């Protein structure tokens, strides 16, 4: 199957449009069934994924790996900087120039903004951005969008409240921009002023004709939401703990708050890992979708690999 994503690098949500997303999501539905029915797939037999995670990860690293394995491929990986030649002073470009001969597709996570793009400029095999510093996380945005659809059965006419460290959180950067492909989304960004959504993203959203509200009134922001997308303080992106300690824990969701302030059918999402943003008592609420969201990451990434590698799954 040739899709418009075949042989493409996946660097930013800017690359997607409605038709790409619809194709990807219908493939995602298929993947979910294969996985749930334990049907063995060999479509990626003979293919190798180069999984390069130079920054901490559990979900992304393991779901990319499992997605490839469930499709019959094999995975070669390097984790962290310490055990890679980058610690000896090798440039990213040299690393990619070497690794591309060892695999058919590269997944790259790195702490620096723009690294995936840099890698794509020297790579003959597709590079998939699994997070570049405070930049983007396009595959997370795809699985987030898929989860919103799965939970709400609609993608238009929703109020989406994003909460937390919106300045440094790459997942909200990507998701907010991906949601601009939908109709009639009302965006509420709830954060302390100093970690509000970057101005460039806010004006991008406004230029698409959407309503955007910036606030630090957490309770009011969650009361309007159809979907709350909570994020953690990105501690690793601050020089000193004192830079975030003043607002750490201010925007914590509890069962009591949700029952008191939110719509009865509110959906609560989080890219995970959580720290103190969502109390454990929220987990049992029917709208707590974050573990289902993480599970969806596997199916979306299976669909993405098939699309990027131009593979069809029959039956
Ligand atoms: C996110 C990330 O790495 O940006 N995690 C993830 O991929 N699910 C969110 C985070 O680390 O806070």
Order of helices and strands: HEHEHEHEHEHEHEHEHHEH
Bound molecules: N-carbamoyl-L-aspartate
| Low-pLDDT windows of residues | none
Rg is 19 Å
Counting DSSP H or I runs of 4 or more residues, the number of helices is: 11
Helix content: 25-40%
The tally of domains stands at 2
Can you say what the CATH homologous superfamily of the largest domain is?
Answer: Aspartate/ornithine carbamoyltransferase
CATH arch. level architecture of the largest domain: 3-Layer(aba) Sandwich
Numbering strands along the chain, what is their spatial order in the largest sheet?
Answer: 7-6-5-8-9
CATH class of the largest domain reads: Alpha Beta
Q: Using the alpha-carbon principal axes, give the shape.
A: globular
Number of strand elements: 9
As a percent range, the share of strand residues is 5-15%
Mean pLDDT: 95
Indicate the structural class. Answer: alpha/beta
- Looking at the structure, the CATH topology of the largest domain is Rossmann fold
């Amino acid at each position: 199957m040739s899709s418009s994503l075949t042989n493409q690098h996946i660097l930013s949500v800017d690359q997607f449009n409605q038709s790409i997303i619809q194709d990807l999501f219908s493939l995602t539905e298929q993947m979910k069934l294969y996985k749930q029915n334990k049907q063995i797939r060999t479509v990626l037999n003979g293919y190798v994924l180069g999984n390069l995670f130079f920054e901490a990860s559990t979900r992304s690293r393991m779901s990319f790996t499992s997605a490839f394995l469930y499709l019959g491929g094999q995975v070669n990986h390097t984790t962290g900087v310490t055990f890679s030649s980058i610690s000896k002073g090798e440039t990213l470009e040299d690393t990619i120039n070497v690794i591309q001969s060892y695999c058919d597709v590269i997944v790259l996570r790195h702490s620096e903004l723009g690294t995936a793009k840099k890698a794509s400029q020297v790579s003959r095999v597709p590079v998939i951005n699994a997070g570049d510093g405070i930049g983007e996380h396009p595959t997370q945005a795809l699985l987030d969008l898929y989860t919103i659809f799965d939970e709400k059965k609609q993608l238009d006419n929703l109020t989406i409240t994003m909460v937390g460290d919106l300045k440094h959180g790459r997942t909200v950067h990507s998701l907010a921009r991906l949601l601009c492909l939908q109709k009639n989304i009302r965006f509420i960004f709830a954060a302390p002023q100093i970690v509000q959504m970057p101005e460039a993203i806010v004006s991008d959203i406004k230029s698409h004709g959407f309503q955007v509200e910036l606030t630090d009134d957490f309770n009011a922001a969650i009361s309007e939401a159809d979907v709350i997308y909570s994020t953690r303080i990105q501690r690793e992106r601050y020089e000193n703990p004192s830079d975030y300690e003043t607002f750490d824990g201010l925007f914590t969701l509890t069962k009591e708050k949700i029952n008191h302030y939110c719509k009865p059918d509110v959906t609560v999402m989080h890219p995970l890992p959580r720290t103190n943003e969502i109390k454990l008592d929220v987990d049992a609420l029917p709208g707590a979708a974050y573990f289902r969201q993480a599970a969806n990451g596997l199916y979306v990434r299976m669909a993405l690999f098939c699309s990027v590698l131009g593979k069809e799954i029959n039956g």
